[in-house]
């Protein structure tokens, strides 16, 4: 029989939603999950074209032409 060991991210499996899981992960790892939760909410509720338009606007505000790798960076920030 294997001894009980501490879970890597205790309590995450009991969370009902992805946002709750992310919040719990952030608490355990001391990471600010607000930017991730904002992006998750956008993905869950916004239309794809609206998301793309927002990403392009953010890149434009940075003064850089949009490129595929930059769009990925904006999505993950």
Kindly report how far apart the N and C termini lie.
Answer: 44 Å
Shape from CA axes? elongated
SSE pattern, N- to C-terminal: HHHH
Secondary structural class:
mainly alpha
Tally of contiguous helical segments: 4
Helix percentage range: 55-70%
Radius of gyration (Å): 17 Å
- State the low-pLDDT regions, or none: none
Number of strands: 0
Taking the sheet with the most strands, its summary is:
none
β-sheet strand percentage: under 5%
Q: Mean of residue pLDDT?
A: 80
Keywords: Plasmid
Characterise the protein shown here:
The protein has 77 residues and is an all-alpha fold. It has a domain at 34-76. Helix content is 61%, strand content 0%. The radius of gyration is 17 Å and the shape is elongated. The protein starts with 17 loop residues before the first helix and ends with a helix. The model has no long low-confidence stretch (mean pLDDT 80).
